[in-house]
Amino acid sequence: MRKPVIGVIPLYDEKRESLWMLPGYLDGLAEAGAIPVILPLHASVEELHQTDAMLDGYLFTGGQDVNPALYGEKPRSCCGAPCEERDLLEQRIYEIACGQDKPILGICRGIQLLNVLHGGSLYQDLAQEFPEKSGVEHHMTAPYDRTVHGVEIRRDSPLYRTLGKESLRVNSYHHQGVKRVGEGLQIMAVAEDGLVEALCRKDKRFVWALQWHPELIYQKDGDALKVFQAFVKACLPES
Length: 239
Ligand SMILES: [Mn+2]
Fold this sequence. Notes:
- The protein is an alpha/beta fold.
- The protein contains 7 helices and 13 strands.
- The longest helix has 16 residues, at 84-99.
- The chain is globular.
- Bound molecules: manganese (II) ion (MN).
């Protein structure tokens, strides 16, 4: 049986001038039945159309903070250095993928980027800009294959239909977060302190994004694996 081929956005280490990958992204997709391939960091729109013809879906990985210029703000000192190559690559891929209604799963930076591409904004740093209501730990330390806070899953969301539960414990390794939700996006889950932790696009078959990290915990957390499986299944709708 043919397996879906999923394009994975490469990670970029500016200090080492190095492309790299966390194995969990690839292994999690493979465990869910897909063949993951790492995409080039630099590619023209024309080249990305060509690679798109070989791909069934896209994983938008974690990474650098999205450039605040993309949501009309100046970077504050608490904001990390942007990665303009990734901002550009992911904008191009997002447009191409959505034009073909190809499934996308965004993780961490992926939810932040999705929100910004839909006209939303971000907290540049939660510690400084997000009113702490409940002492929720969003920026955990290693090991990352453990849960540190809860999220409430909205009953009208596809995430609820996939997991069949209204509350979930998740890991959490992010210092930014969704502030104003972008147009056309539906909230799928919120943390105990009200922070948006999962979004989806209402008008597409499968465009989901999570603030937590299933790739770091899927080996021991069945719900994390179910998210990968739902994504992979959406990539091959005929099977
Ligand atoms: Mn969190």
